[in-house]
Amino acid sequence: MARTCQIADLHTLGDTLDVCLARSEGVIQPDAWNEIAALRGRLRRRTGFLDEVLVVALAGGTGSGKSSLLNALCGTQVATVGIERPTTSTSLAAVPKNLEGDVRGFVQALGIETIVTVESLERIVFVDLPDFDSTFTDHRLIVESVLSVVDAVVWVLDPEKYADRLVHESFLTPLKRYGDQMIFVLNQVDRIADYEVDVVESLRAQLHANGYQDPQIVTTVAAANEGTDLSTEALESALASRLDLKHSAVAKLAVDVKIEANRRWHELDVEFVNLEGQERIDSAVAMASFVSLGVAAYEVAASISGGNQP
Ligand SMILES: Nc1nc2c(ncn2[C@@H]2O[C@H](COP(=O)(O)OP(=O)(O)OP(=O)(O)O)[C@@H](O)[C@H]2O)c(=O)[nH]1
Ligand SMILES: [Mg+2]
To answer: Which class is domain 54-238?
Structure first.
């Protein structure tokens, strides 16, 4: 099981990388320096993404069960569920209690004011997006505006509206390029017990036709009714896999930084004996900063993979 990487680790790595860039400019070849600057860019994007948590937006048509699903996933009532539509008119974030301080700024930057801390949440932040009871085009614009900062969008569908032409034409087709970020949830499957498989296949075929090559579809029961139980395991395990993938991506980046630091250190070391005066001093300073960078990158990679990294 991967251990969580502390946000502070990545900030430290970024700071060390900045020092390296400053100390090696003009000392190493411009191409090599640009490669390190590119790594810094990748790391900066990652750091902004909150590496220890998966940020998940819940989207979908009004009444599909987004708020019920959020409550079921949190194991407590964080969002208002209703029969009148729309029930959710402002967005809300459910955040793990132990990460509230780290996550608050990030969530507020998304324009979300209501933050509920949830004891049972561990490494996932959920954002319940408002429906605005608007057209799907409006809803798409809201989702599109958060897509660049969330890890996944859980698009909640219900058995009645899963095939709605407007949902597909105004929402899903224009967002097909973000297919990897989408998880499609067919909710309320307790109401279609006998033909659940057919509905899932029909949804899959429709998503294919919309340009989603390999859509991830899971089924849920977000609100228990008489004779039925809640069922959110498939979604929970899909989210857990995505969190592991996210950690792997960060671990890979840290290993890339480590390899780059070692390579530059070796190159400088080979040339060192031929240098004199200020050049020799600059080279020594750059080498020292690459050593620090290699160590910082190693520590991040090890903290994510529990020490089992190359
Ligand atoms: N049978 C059944 N009913 C469900 C399920 N999930 C939600 N519901 C019901 O569907 C209705 C709408 O659920 P909400 O969770 O409020 O839906 P929403 O998508 O948040 O709606 P808005 O906030 O209006 O956009 C409620 O009456 C829920 O009890 C489910 O899995 N099965
Ligand atoms: Mg709602």
So the answer is: alpha beta
